[in-house]
Amino acid sequence: MQYIILDLEWNQPISWQSPVYKQIGNKLIFEMIQIGAVKLDQNLQIADALSLPIAPTHYIQIHPRIRKMTGLGNEELAGAPAFREALEQFAAWCGEDYVLLTWGCDDVSVLQQNIDFFECQDISLAPLCDIQKLFTQVHSLKDRPSLKKAMEQMNIAPDESMAFHNARNDAWYTALVFQTLPDPAAVLEYTQTPKSLIHKPRKTRERTAMTPYPSVQAALESDLALKPTCPRCGRILALDGEYVLQSPDKYITIGKCRGHGKMLLRLALRTEEEGHVLMRRSVAPASYSNIAYVHTKQFQARQREGIS
Ligand SMILES: [Zn+2]
């Protein structure tokens, strides 16, 4: 069985308001514009490499950010085959007994969405496994590293003539990282399942459901209260001071996301019969007056504690 490392580049709508995106919507969020791959021999050495550009048929104009990142613009892709033809060429190049490997879990979902959208389910490909996940576990890393980070960690110098974010080059670099793994075959345990891709307009505020707690104290000490998440990125917010009572059954404080700034956190409690408590948390971007208000309340609360 042969290892084939695959990397993809894709285009996205110029705008989420564009007519073409409005028309096809979440059926195709990212349209593939390049397939890059390398084949490894029995000794995990690179035996062959492939770059297949794909001419987009829906998001025809290459997004400036993608163009800048990949070096692929409309000129470079002019005359390239459309998706089906490129995928057929790729499948033929892969041959018979092989497994596909990628860096990370994005490519598998983008590939699947393109296969579904362009109705290419008849072109069969081997399952995909994730090298990044294995690398992360082998090195006991907290976060999944980018390919570039993984190369730095393994002292693999990029080739000046091979820019990142070119599918063929990234597949090549992934192969170099793959070669450093103590037990490369373990990658076969990390089979990937494609996720359905949809474009989610970014939320800036969020409210949880009412959640039951045995007491007010338990509610205030719960993860719901103490480990609030940023509505935009899901990271846990760092609390800026303790919760203070705003009105009976309402507590507020400020939380900070390192990517999205300060948020106003509100806990609303409702005491049920038998002493049980229901609580929900809401999060929204904090205004200057929110922040000043919370700080004043926190200051007053500390003063009261000092007096009592
Ligand atoms: Zn955030």
Describe the fold and architecture.
With 308 residues, the protein is of the alpha+beta class. It folds into two domains: 2-189, 2-Layer Sandwich (Nucleotidyltransferase, domain 5), CATH 3.30.420; 206-307, no CATH class. It contains eleven helices and eleven strands. The strands form two sheets. Strands 6, 7, 8, 9, 10 and 11 form a six-stranded antiparallel β-sheet that branches.
Report a brief summary of the structure.
By secondary structure, the chain is of the alpha+beta class.
Q: How many structural domains in the coordinates? A: 2
Helix content: 25-40%
Mean pLDDT: 94
CATH C-level class of the largest domain = Alpha Beta
Fourth CATH level, the homologous superfamily of the largest domain: Ribonuclease H-like superfamily/Ribonuclease H
- What is the global morphology? elongated
Total strands: 11
Q: Tell me about the largest β-sheet.
A: 6 strands, antiparallel
Oligomer: single chain
- What CATH architecture of the largest domain would you give? 2-Layer Sandwich
CA gyration radius, whole angstroms: 25 Å
| Ligand kinds | zinc ion
Tell me the distance between the termini.
75 Å
Number of separate helices: 11
The SSE string, one letter per element, is EHEEHHHEHEHHHEEHHEEEEH
Strand content: 25-35%
